[in-house]
């Protein structure tokens, strides 16, 4: 279950990062509330996953899901640039996540 909690925590990180962007510096109430709720849930699930998973593995996977997810949402929803260098960077993050998972004994 720790891996399930960790993946959900990573996905919630994407949600709170997107809602933080939409909050316009915490000046809009609804996106600000969404940011705070999703951030709390994400940290909570990360914490639960760390009861079983090693710190380095859990934190790396969590931030990686957030980073690649935020990149994908930025491109798909916000119209951010897709350049070969940005795609390569995201691919390298994914490769690192796969390596972390494969190297974990859990």
From TrEMBL:
One Pfam family it belongs to: Multi_Drug_Res
GO MF annotation list: transmembrane transporter activity
Gene Ontology biological-process entries: xenobiotic detoxification by transmembrane export across the plasma membrane
Localisation: Cell membrane
Membrane topology, from the record: Multi-pass membrane protein
Gene3D superfamilies, per database record: 1.10.3730.20
Name listed for the protein in its UniProt record: Guanidinium exporter
Species whose genome carries this gene: Mesorhizobium hungaricum
